[in-house]
Amino acid sequence: MSRGKAIVVRIQSPESGTKRIDTKGNESIAEFLNKVQKTFELGDIGWTVYKTREKKDALRNSRAKTLDSYKIKHGDMLFLFSQSTHSGAGERPGSSDSVAMDTTPFKDTVVEDEVDQLLYKEDGKIYRKKDEQLCHHGPSGKCLHCVPLEPFDETFLQTCDPPIKYLSFHSYLRKLTSGVDKGKFANLENVSCKIKEGCKEHPPWPGGICTKCQPTALTLNRQRYRHVDYIMFENPNICNQFLNYWRNTGNQRLGIMYGRYEPHKDIPLSIKATVAAIYEPPQINSKNKIELLEDPQEEAIHRLTQRLGLVAVGWIFTDLVADDLTTGTVKNFRGNVDSHFLSAEECIMAAQFQNKYPNPCKYSNDGHFGSKFVTVIVTGDQSGQIHFEGYQVSNVCMALVRDDCLIPTKDAPELGYIKESTNEQYVPDVFYKDKDEYGNEVTQLARPLPVEYLLVDMGAAFPVEPQFTFKTSDKPFPKENRNATGEVQDFNALTHYMHQFTPDKFFEAVTDFHLLLYLSTTDMLPLKERISTLLEAVKSGDESIAHHFKKSEEWATVEEMMAAHGTSSPTLTREGSYVGPGASPLPPIGSSGGLWTCAHCTFHNKSENQNCEMCSLPRQ
């Protein structure tokens, strides 16, 4: 019996995940429910604790009954539902009249992404035609040689051209739920590297630790599945506009990719991230470093993209170094035997992004598992051409970074390092398997750790037929946070941009992501109350809604302001490039915005520089 002894009871909630409560078997139900209320920060009414996910055996509020009377033991899981997740709105916790009308399992209360809901409905089987040589049955029959295969069939995946080395996440889920129980007990558990709080059997760390609260040691294996299988940019113009920053300055650049998650047909039950636009947050850029700054527009970006039906699908950054300016080639220093795919520092940043954008999942008690957020690097391939590489870091890497266990090494970018335990933090042991000089498999402590154990790669490319969520023009609206290059989002830029379109091309003019961002966030225009109409027009592709917006009083005011402002010349900028596939050096265009252009390599230099930063030749 647990009477009088300290026990830990787990409470699971659709809204707040799983939490642990220290109690005793002889504690009254009233005292226990008070602890639940404080732990989950609940009100006095509108919630009930049950012994089952099906909302049976509710714990009635009583000072006479104890946990022992409900046969609740150490380690048991109870289930907390609020009025938003069952029909007992306004009832008191544990009251005698509480009735559980909704018998939906807890995991089904998680609202998953639309693409996941679509893939759950798909059959997923790999159908094969009748083999005329091996099949000896009629046209309606099936045999071992033509029966449909499961989407996780290893033999089929290895015989594909090229072989499919990762299961799609939904194929992995089908594998988990393919047993006799049909996934009734399937559960995806997020890794934790932290000591479980609340253990009363010893002093807190570093005074003590036990098997109940100690995180388990980890042995890293390469992840066998991936949450996203392919990255598709709708059209090359999206990337060209992003790359123009590097072409004009020689400095690296980072952007957040917005688009959609959609089913991908080339791999069974797979998902692709379709990129419709790239937002460039505030940052400090140099030739070999990018420092991301706090973004005051983050909430505005979220509201804008939500109204446009877009989500943040990943981040993209350049790692480009010009090789031959006459041929437009770039250097190749990633992905070969002497280098790395992603540095440890980049893996850590990718994990931070993935933790920020978790993947909703009904098979996890936490309501989320892994992430669909992808990483794209723009770098040089073996032929010296600009190309795109797609990655994610594993779920274990996300946990190591979230719990502050993984740090980069100082001199080797391809190696990370698992921190050692201190008085302030306990860090579990992390191992990985490698082969020694004799070909034997050995277990190594992850100090240091090759980051390739943390990576999952995927293709990134363009469709055969370009797609356009947003229109393209010869002179697009300036990009945000590019003041250093002379690109400024201001009223003068708006006037000059709109002047290139005739009145009948209004819908085409406003279907520009960066323009919509400016119109949604600027305080000098009276559009914030009306902008939702324009965003709905772009989202739906309905030109009539856009023209309805054009006739509004607010836009008429903007047109009057533009007419009064005139069409004075905008800040001089360079739209061309000095390097890249098919590009050639541009002639000097004079000074602009405190910069001077090198007559030899066309690089933009600061006014105080007497020699070119790119080619080191003198200014005159």
Which SSEs are present, and which pair or pack?
Elements: E1 6-13, E2 17-24, H1 29-40, E3 47-50, E4 77-82, H2 114-121, H3 154-159, E5 167-168, H4 169-176, E6 218-220, E7 225-226, E8 230-233, H5 236-249, E9 254-264, E10 270-279, E11 283-285, E12 290-292, H6 298-307, E13 311-318, E14 322-324, E15 329-330, H7 344-356, E16 358-360, E17 368-371, E18 374-380, E19 386-393, H8 395-402, E20 406-408, E21 415-418, E22 430-435, E23 441-445, E24 449-450, E25 455-461, H9 491-499, H10 506-510, H11 513-521, H12 531-540, H13 543-550, H14 553-565, E26 595-597, E27 604-606
Parallel strand pairs: 1-4, 5-7, 6-22, 8-10, 8-25, 13-18
Antiparallel strand pairs: 1-2, 3-4, 9-10, 9-13, 11-12, 14-15, 16-17, 18-19, 19-25, 20-21, 21-24, 22-23, 26-27
Helix pairs in contact: 7-8, 12-13
Would you write up a description of this structure?
The protein is an alpha+beta fold and 620 residues long. It is 21% helix and 21% strand. The strands form nine sheets. It has a seven-stranded mixed β-barrel with strand order 8-10-9-13-18-19-25, surrounded by six helices. The chain has a four-stranded mixed sheet with strand order 2-1-4-3, covered by helices on one side. The protein has a three-stranded mixed sheet with strand order 6-22-23, with no helix packed on it. A hairpin with a 6-residue loop joins β26 and β27 (604-606). Residues 85-107 and 568-593 have low confidence and may be disordered.
